[in-house]
Amino acid sequence: MAQQVKEKALGAGGAAPQGCRQAAGRKPGRAETGSGGAAEQNKKKAHSVRSIQQKKTGRKKASTGKWEAYDYESAYELPLDQLTEQQLQEMIDRERKVIYATKTIKHGHQCDVEIYPDFTHLPGNLPKERSNREAQRNLNDRNSRKECERRINENFGPSDYWVTLTCLPREEPQTMEEALRIFQNYIKRLNYRRKKKGLDPARYVYVTDWTKNGRRTRTHYHLVLDGGLPMDEVLELWGKGRKNTVEYLTLDERGLSGLAYYITKPHASDTEDIKHKKRWTASKNLRRPAEHKNHQAFGRRKVEAMAKAPADIYGTMERKYPRYWCEDAEARWNGRNGYFYIRAVLRERCQAGDVVTITGKSELLETLPQPIQKKLGRYKRFLVLAVDYTVPGWETAQLQPEGTRERIACPARACIVNERRKGEKKR
Asked: Rounded to whole angstroms, how far apart are CA atoms 296 and 161?
């Protein structure tokens, strides 16, 4: 019986059909059909569909190559006012392909927007490293100050402290290393006191300002500190010097950027061994600013339009980021490749429930009646009751001074957000 089944399977004469013998002689592989295989047909069909879709949309698939990192801020350092209108137009009219990246860095109630050309392969006129050692040092200093500014804005606010500490002449450290050791011991005492009170370790950024003139040394410290401990304890734990101060931080239109620049700027008295050293030290428990990068926010034509009319950058940024005011903007270019770099500094608009202070810019308040200007100058902090952004140029906020029941109408642009009490939105 088994023999009969075997013969039936093989066909007449016990031999396999010719087509089966040919298939058996080949190596196992993908399934085949008479036209080259079903898988091959599906692949060709999918490719033709993609081609048709690309023709319909007129778009090509975005490059998946790795974007090369380079110092775009220093590569585009020539101001546009060096160009005549005709030179600028000639540079824009060049036929070239470039993709502009947009990077946003959000720190506190501030946001930096940087627009720059991005490359998968860097052109020869954009070297990865700077050949001039002094220029590289200056660039590192500038980047360090920028990082300090963003860290301070992200982690500190009006309830935190600005502390200045000094030493008596007989207590002055004779070396920079000794000055650093003295302050690190002070930080340890702060954290020990906080631990006894059940508080988390201190959040801080400090700068040691140590100078030596002949045999005389002078030391003082600037400290941005979170407000966990009372002010008197912060000074008590230092135990040195006489001209020591502690006060609450004050925000302006740029948040705490002015303060950050003040404590990190180089001094003429700096010796060569500390001139290019990192001036500031931060605790490890600070939040890092949120960075996002994309290649769709601003295309080449939009960037070139902003470069052609830099005054329009302010309005363009406020339309693109409607939750922010544009405080500062600039456009620069590279003389070798003709590409542009645009930078804008934004600050958050106030919303109902925010606690705000009023700007010191007189041009935003000079159109108000004198009684309202006096009321705004009398109080320090205000609660935002309502805000109306429906009419551009006439944005108005209804404010209530803290501790009162008064209501004051004020230009919304003059309000500086200090803290967000109700329904803080994710940024």
From this structure: 40
